[in-house]
Design goal:
Elements: H1 3-15, E1 23-26, H2 30-42, E2 48-51, H3 54-62, E3 76-81, E4 85-86, E5 92-93, H4 100-108, E6 110-118, E7 131-135, H5 140-153, E8 161-162, E9 164-165, E10 168-169, E11 177-181, H6 189-197, E12 202-205, E13 207-208, E14 214-218, E15 223-227
Parallel strand pairs: 1-2, 1-3, 3-6, 6-14
Antiparallel strand pairs: 4-5, 5-13, 7-11, 7-12, 8-11, 9-10, 14-15
Helix pairs in contact: 1-2
This protein binds ribulose-5-phosphate.
Residues 27-32, 81-84, 94-100, 103 line the site of ribulose-5-phosphate (5RP).
Length: 228
């Protein structure tokens, strides 16, 4: 079974957790897109959906889902989103799609969060996937130096690199930049998360700790649920 089939299975299984009338947070990325499609196909009444990116908003709108915002619906019943890595205790790396800030805002406003993924995303230790760090554009090279100092303090020698697209610097939906930190192994995710947040100019990082309540992993045979 391909990774995309596994993502689809996970997205479809998560869509079955949604009930009519719920406020639902919609994640970003290819796995979350399967969830959005499966959710729209269920035609549940009274749903209001808060998207975590412009891309997800566009998909949800095309599929006829009713969109809302965190301003109009500040409390979300259930958020379903993908991840780049799922480690022990459902500690996650997210932000491969550059939507980490809106994702984290929506996750933190949610009563329950389900992370959906293919098996390749499950890891024993976080860090093989480069950790995305969202940075304000003003003075970003200075901020990058301070990020490098923090990384060095965590035995991570490689400085974070600004994410580029064909046309130049990648911009998030909020107009910020993304730096990717090739950590290799993150020995202490909690301390790293705290240290990164203390840097002026860092808006958010892709460590999602103590946020996921459950993981639904698409497997060769179907899906496997892991509760925290
Ligand atoms: C976007 C994310 C995505 O959830 C993450 O990158 C996983 O993407 P995909 O489901 O396409 O593998 O965090 O910012």
């Amino acid at each position: 079974m391909s990774a995309d089939d596994q993502k689809r299975h996970a997205g479809e299984a998560a869509a079955l957790r949604v009930e009519a009338g719920m406020v639902v947070g919609l994640g970003t990325g290819s796995t979350a897109a399967w969830f959005v499609k499966a959710l729209a196909a269920r035609n549940l009444t009274g749903l209001r959906c808060v998207p975590t990116s412009e891309a997800t908003a566009e998909l949800a709108r095309e599929l006829g889902l009713t969109l809302s915002t965190l301003e109009d619906t500040p409390r979300i019943d259930l958020t379903v989103d993908g991840a780049d890595e799922i480690g022990p205790g459902l500690a996650l790396i997210k932000g491969g799609g550059a939507a980490l800030l809106r994702e984290k805002l929506v996750w933190e406003a949610s009563t329950r969060c389900i992370v959906i993924a293919d098996t390749a995303k499950v890891v024993k230790t976080l860090g093989a996937f480069a950790l995305p760090i969202e940075v304000v554009a003003f003075g970003h090279k200075t901020t990058a130096n301070r990020i490098a100092d923090v990384l060095a303090d965590h035995d991570i020698a490689m400085p974070a690199r600004v994410r580029m697209a064909e046309r130049g610097l990648v911009r998030t939906d909020g107009g910020n930049l993304i730096y990717d930190a090739r950590c290799g192994v993150i020995h202490d995710p909690v301390r790293l998360a705290d240290d990164l947040k203390l840097i002026t100019g860092v808006v958010e990082h892709g460590l999602f700790l103590d946020l996921a309540d459950e993981a639904i992993i698409g497997t060769e045979t179907g899906v496997e649920a892991r509760v925290l």
